[in-house]
Structures are given as structure tokens and as C-alpha cells.
Design goal:
The chain has twelve helices and ten strands. With 355 residues, the chain is of the alpha/beta class. The longest helix is centred in the first third of the chain and has 26 residues. The chain is elongated. Bound molecules: guanosine-5'-triphosphate (GTP) and magnesium ion. Pfam families: SRP54.
Length: 355
């Protein structure tokens, strides 16, 4: 397989996309004594990107009335009337009864969901009327409340005996491979554990090369697997290791076929611990969609990347508030192996509440 991949790379370049791979036997008698061959179908997209200009239609298209459309319009109208009424009522409230406070403003500015923010603020002393040392009390209480939402923290626990297998899954480009390299370097080089890497990301040649480079630098073995059966064999081969880290191809949350394939891959071994990798800067609504769609792979933990690029950490709090899942690591930059840390709930609560 490695030889075939090298040939594809030589013929089509690093950006070739692997469409299909298959092992087969050629020659021999009745399937015996045949030579094992590998068939790889690959392609490369050389077409220039076309810019298609779309002109607005000259007149509005004629549409046939749909009874559902009428119902939706009626609902929209009703909702906008209710919204106007609420805004009017809020406008008539005396200033001090409005739910506005500097801490609430900080929560909202940090993209904490308004419902979550209101719940966290419930019953807190009014920080506007506090002076001196008391002024910080409301903030400290709020930090404690946020930290209490973040108590389920658990990184990778090496087993006292046996092999721990951990897979990172998630959308494309969130930092799965880089995080695998950071984890491998920390566990193998800093803590002295026996580590092996497995990649199931055989979609692009460049993806395998990326992890191979890290594996060579760290000095750990790398296995490339093309099917659930090969993953099973690779895990069996490395059962003498303390930790096997499995890299997977980035998957679009909207692609059910890809997600089902990922689910089937991870189902080969019920002991694989799966971490869903999320970019911290993802908007809450998008993060919800990702969590919902990847839930078919039953991730046990959330791992947040690119904290250094995120303007706020509201999405972490919002997600944890609604899905009481364990949190594992935060990654804070591109440097391997340094830019990764186990989550600390008080530190994270302070970061969530930063001005
Ligand atoms: N700023 C910043 N960049 C990061 C971090 N982690 C990874 N990156 C960068 O994000 C980019 C994508 O990282 P990869 O590790 O290739 O992401 P991936 O999830 O494996 O991507 P696919 O395999 O294509 O789905 C690279 O340029 C990384 O250096 C981080 O914590 N902070
Ligand atoms: Mg990757």
C-alpha cells in the first residue's frame, strides 16, 4: 500500500485525492499462489476555479401558493407582533428593573447564551450597589458558578495495565492531527510512555505525510489504516503500548455518509475513547449542530482547539451547560508539543469572564 501511495504521489502530486483502494490477488490457480496486488484509484482536480456571476432576476419569479407558506407567514407575523409588544413593555420598565448589570454585559459580550447568562446571574448580589472589597464579591461568586459548570474535566488517563486507545474526531481543519502530535510528544517524550499513532485519514496523501513527519520526529510508530478491519489489526499489533492515538479525517457535520463511515470505523473496538475536537471560535449554533451530528460516534469528551484565536470562550460554557460531557484539553497555538493544556476550571471560568 505504501508503495502504491508513493507512486500516486509521484504521478499526481501531494494534493491527489484517494477515491478508492482495494487489495486483490492476481494469477495463481483457483485463487491460490496468486500475487497480492493493491489497486488505488486517485484523482487530481486541475480545473481552474470558475467565477460565476449571478445577475438578480429582472422581475420577481411567479410562485404557486403553498398552504404551508401561508401558515409560516402567519406565524412570523404573530411572532413579530409579540416581539414588538415585549420591546414596548421592556421600554416602560423603570431603569433599575431591567436585567442589565456590568457582569451580565460581560457574559453577553463573551457570547454566553442569554438564557445561560440569566440563569448564572440569578440571585447574585447587585454589584452596582457594592463598594470597596464587596465590589468583587459578585464577580467571585459568578466565577465560582461558572467553574461549577466546568467540573467534569478528564484528560487521557493511562491505564494501570493494558492499552488505552484514543481517537480524535471532528470537522475539517480544527487541529486534530496537530493535537495528536502534541499529545504523542507529551506522553512519549515528557512522560516516557510507549505510544503508537494510527491514522485513518487516508483521504489525502498530504494528511498521512503530516502525521508521518511528527511520528518520525517523536520516534513513535505510525500505522496507516484503510478499513475498520485494519484498525482492529493495528490496535491488536500495538496492544503492548500504553497509548494508541488514532487520527481521523475531518468530517463535515452535514455529510451523514461520512459520519456513518466514521462511526463504523470506531465501532471495531468499544474501548476506544473518542474526543470530539471543536474550534473554540465556532459560533454556538454551529457548535450545537456539530455536537448533534457527531453524536452518532458517541464522543465521551470535548477537546477545544485554537483558544488563542478565539475572541471569547462563550461556546465552551454554552455547550457544557447543555451537554454535561467531560472536557479534556485546550490547545492554545500551533507549537508542538507546548501549546496544549489540561483544562483548569477556575482558570477557564476567569477566561470566560474576561473583559
Ligand atoms: N492558532 C492555532 N492554530 C492551530 C491550533 N491547533 C492547530 N492549529 C493549526 O490549524 C491548522 C489545521 O490543523 P490540523 O491539525 O491539520 O487540523 P485537522 O483537524 O487535522 O485537519 P483535517 O485533517 O484536514 O481535518 C494547522 O495550520 C495547525 O497548525 C491551535 O491551537 N491554535
Ligand atoms: Mg488532520
Amino acid at each position: 500500500m505504501a508503495e502504491a501511495m508513493a507512486q500516486v504521489k509521484q504521478d499526481l502530486g501531494r494534493d491527489a485525492v484517494i477515491l478508492h483502494t482495494r487489495r486483490l490477488k492476481k494469477g495463481g490457480i483457483l485463487g491460490f499462489f496468486g500475487r497480492e496486488m493493491v489497486e488505488v484509484m486517485a484523482a487530481v482536480d486541475t480545473a481552474p476555479v470558475k467565477v460565476v456571476e449571478k445577475k438578480p432576476p429582472m422581475s420577481a419569479p411567479i410562485s404557486v401558493a403553498n398552504p404551508n407558506d401561508t401558515k409560516i407567514t402567519a406565524l412570523q407575523l404573530e411572532m413579530s407582533t409579540m416581539r414588538r409588544m415585549l420591546e414596548q413593555m421592556m421600554g416602560q420598565l423603570p431603569e433599575k428593573n431591567k436585567q442589565s448589570s456590568p457582569l451580565m454585559d460581560v457574559l453577553l459580550k463573551n457570547d454566553v447564551d442569554p438564557a445561560v447568562a440569566a440563569d448564572l446571574m440569578k440571585g447574585l448580589p447587585d454589584e452596582n450597589s457594592m463598594v470597596g472589597d464587596d465590589a468583587g464579591t459578585a464577580r467571585n461568586l459568578l466565577i465560582d458558578r461558572i467553574a461549577n459548570c466546568l467540573t467534569k474535566i478528564n484528560g487521557i488517563d493511562i491505564l494501570p495495565s493494558g492499552c488505552k486507545a484514543v481517537a480524535l474526531i471532528g470537522p475539517t481543519g480544527v487541529g486534530k492531527t496537530t493535537t495528536i502530535a502534541k499529545l504523542a510528544a507529551n506522553f512519549a517524550l515528557k512522560e516516557g510512555y510507549k505510544v503508537a499513532l494510527v491514522t485513518a485519514d487516508t483521504y489525502r496523501i498530504a494528511a498521512v505525510e503530516q502525521l508521518k513527519t511528527y511520528a518520525d520526529i517523536i520516534g513513535v510508530p505510525l500505522e496507516i489504516v484503510y478499513s475498520p478491519d485494519e484498525l482492529k489489526t493495528a490496535l491488536f499489533r500495538h496492544e503492548d503500548k500504553h497509548l494508541v492515538l488514532i487520527d481521523t479525517a475531518g468530517r463535515s457535520p452535514g455529510n451523514h455518509y461520512q459520519l456513518a463511515e466514521l462511526q463504523a470505523l470506531l465501532a471495531v473496538n468499544p474501548y476506544i475513547e473518542t474526543h470530539l475536537v471543536l474550534n473554540t471560535a465556532t459560533k454556538y449554533r454551529d457548535a450545537l449542530e456539530i455536537v448533534n451530528k457527531f453524536s452518532i460516534c458517541s464522543p465521551q469528551k470535548f477537546l477545544f482547539t485554537k483558544v488563542d484565536e478565539a475572541s471569547n470562550l462563550g461556546t465552551i460554557l454554552n455547550l457544557v451547560y447543555h451537554f454535561p460531557t467531560y472536557l479534556s484539553y485546550l490547545t492554545t497555538g500551533q507549537s508542538v508539543p507546548d501549546d496544549i493544556e489540561l483544562i483548569d476550571s477556575i482558570k477557564l471560568a476567569n477566561m470566560i469572564l474576561r473583559d
